Amino acid sequence: MEPKNKHNYNDDFKKMVVELYYMGSSVSTLSSEYGVSEVTIYKWIKALTPVNGQENSLTPQDIAEIQKENLRMKQEIEILKKAMAIFARK
Fold first, then answer.
1. Where along the chain do its domains lie?
2. CB 44: neighbour CB atoms within 10 A?
3. Half-sphere exposure for 34 (CA within 13 Å, toward CB)
């Protein structure tokens, strides 16, 4: 059974709400205006705020994506090493 209020918001919408927050709108105002829970907005703010506060810094979401890609690449390298060992024996 799915939760009643399960919504999927696109990244542009999330970024817009976070930008409005940083431009001075309160979370409660944004929540009532856009129909998104305050908890969800706070999660978006945390996920989309740069780590060290500078404009072109990485967000926690960016870091998680980089870590995921890094793990995938490490796995690919291990597969290639095993394949090289197999072909080297022939």
1. 8-49, 58-90
2. 22
3. 21
pLDDT tens digits for range 19-39: 999 999 999 999 999 999 999
Measure the CA–CA gap between 47 and 61, rounded to whole angstroms.
6
Determine the Cα–Cα distance for residues 61 and 82; give it in Å rounded to an integer: 32
Q: Amino acid identity of 46?
A: K
Determine the Cα–Cα distance for residues 90 and 83; give it in Å rounded to an integer. 11
Whole-prediction pTM value?
Answer: 0.59
DSSP 49: S
pLDDT band of residue 58 (cuts 50, 70, 90) is confident
